[in-house]
Amino acid sequence: MALAIMCSGGDAPGMNPAIKKFVDYSYKKGEEAYLVYDGLEGLIDNKIKKATHQDVAGIVHIGGTIIRSSRSKRFFEHEYRLKAFNNLKSHGIKGMVVLGGDGSFRAMEKFSSEFDINFVGIPSTIDNDIYGTDYCLGVDTALNVIRDALDKIRDTASSFNRAFIVEVMGRDCGYLAVVSAMISGAEICIIPEVEFNTQEVEKKLLKEIEEGRNYILAIISEGSKNTSQVHAWIQDKLGLETRVSILGHIQRGGNPTVYDRLMAFDFTIKAVDYLLSHNDSNKVVVFKNGEFGFMEIEEVVSNKYQLPQHYLDAINFLD
Ligand code: F6P
User: Fold this and answer.
1) Is pTM, for the whole model, over 0.70?
2) Helix pair 175-184, 139-158: axis angle to 10 deg
3) For residue 248, how far is its CA from the centre of ligand 1 (angstroms)?
4) Which terminal residue of the chain has fewer beta carbons within 10 Å of its beta carbon, N or C?
5) Residues 180-206: pLDDT tens digits?
6) Does the beta carbon of 10 sit less than 6 angstroms from any atom of ligand 1?
7) Does ligand 1 lie within 6 Å of residue 133's CB atom?
8) Is 13 near ligand 1, meaning CB less than 6 Å away?
9) Residue 313 has what pLDDT?
10) What are the structural domains of the chain?
11) Alpha-carbon dihedral of residues 244, 250, 251, 257, nearest 10 degrees?
12) Atom 10 of ligand 1: nearest residue by CA position
């Protein structure tokens, strides 16, 4: 059977180890492996190439994705999905592994409901916001990038009487922010999922400042959309000169960590095995409570990821 792999949406560290494993493992199983370049845009434009081991040699340690990715508007139109399907058919491709996030899975759900194509999704996004899985590829690397930045910012923050606000990615999900705040000992964490108790935190921090605290580290999730208000609040109410750092796209880059490489290998083997043993798959590989499993794509895309309760509880009581 010919199988293909494609990356879609925001890239995530771990995609390259997954691509390498996909090619090596498919050939080991006696199947043909294809690479779809440029995500859904490339699927429409037939940028599909039979893979060799050489194509994926020396990529396991590199961030991003060697086959590139895209966010496609055209794929939402039927005529382009038909084009994409005909391209896959012309190469004899029967099954696809798709590395992507929520939006990409939504597109694949539509695609597979219209055409006879089997696919298995691998949750891949630094946002960690996909329903049904505790872990998405790329999250550990992104957290380590953020951790490194926060450790450095704390060095300079502690050398002055200053507050630092660090805005992290995550789209509408506060996962990166809350985990980063916990592991860096931040004093403030603001995420879209939890109402921030300004009065409570203000009281606590003013007391600490009175007792000698000379700096504050605040983490804000980009989805909270209130970085400038928080900036004003800290300066006016806590009386500290305040600087803002928006970490931006550096959070999406970097060599995948050991954990992301191992997870990429495991996710991919599960996905390929599933495709080879089923001919009607519309699934996502999920990692839940330490175990791999599969969930219907429809269930994944029609539900919203919820942060675990202990993270939500931690928000107003960081110490
Ligand atoms: O979904 C990954 C992500 O990096 C989000 O955290 C962020 O909001 C978004 O993608 C940025 O998208 P783009 O790279 O298109 O600017």
Assistant:
1) yes
2) 50
3) 9
4) C
5) 999 999 999 999 999 988 999 999 999
6) yes
7) no
8) no
9) 86
10) 2-138+256-303 (3.40.50.450), 141-252 (3.40.50.460)
11) -140
12) 10
CB 193 near ligand 1, within 6 Å: no
Q: What is the mean pLDDT of residues 114-125?
A: 96
Q: State in Å: Cα 236 to ligand 1 middle.
A: 31
Pair of tokens at residue 144: 């380590």
Mean pLDDT of 225-252: 96
Is there an atom of ligand 1 within 6 Å of 252 CB?
Answer: yes
The residue contributing the CA closest to ligand 1 atom 7 is: 171
Q: What's the pLDDT band for 316 if we cut at 50, 70, 90?
A: low
Q: Tokens 């496609």: give the residue.
A: 72
Whether the per-residue pLDDT at 143 is higher than 90: the answer is yes
- The atom of ligand 1 lying closest to the CA of 12 is 2
CA-to-CA distance for 143 and 164, rounded, in angstroms? 18
7-31, pLDDT tens digit by residue?
999 999 999 999 999 999 999 999 9
Do residues 264 and 5 make contact, with C-beta atoms less than 8 angstroms apart?
Answer: no
Task: Find the radius of gyration of the CA atoms of the chain.
Answer: 22
Average pLDDT, the chain: 96
pLDDT tens for each residue of 261-304: 999 999 999 999 999 999 888 999 999 999 999 999 999 999 99
What residues act catalytically?
127
* Ligand 1 centroid, distance to 123 Cα (angstroms): 15
